[in-house]
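Molecular record:
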Amino acid sequence: MSSDLKFNQFQLSCQGVTLPFGLVVDEISVRATEPVVNLDNGKIAAIGAQDAFAIVSEASIASYLRPQLPSAVKEADVYIGDGLLKIAAKVVVVFPISVNAYCRLEIVDESRLEIRLHDVEPGGPVRGMLEKYIDDVNPILQASDLPIALRFTDVQLADGQVRLQAELLASG
């Protein structure tokens, strides 16, 4: 007798998932056809066609990043669009100056999402401070933090949100 549980279709949808380190993932969605789960060990043995993604809004990213900003950074706002994550802030060096940091998000080893500083306006000493801050908050998301085993495949930044495409991993 087979100890496999076979599905015609599997669908999982989660909203407002607060990860242990504080980032809120606004939506996680997984759809798969013909997955097979081994009942002896509870692992996914096979998967057919699938679609999986996670969405994080600019509000969720701002809520996560703001408490970790260096004390010299004030009034930080986050905007997501055109492939970039923009942090607009007031930075007090000797006096307050307006700073725009333009960042990209990059998938590393199919399992981590990291912020990469692309440009800073104006540059100068503020850039070094922001580079250290970004090093401290990376990775912003790890596949191992999610409630289901995924491999990250693509990231898109548009319309106020990060959309992270992924694949459901067979674990058996």
Remarks:
- Helices lie at 58-65, 125-137.
- DSSP finds two helices and 13 strands in the chain.
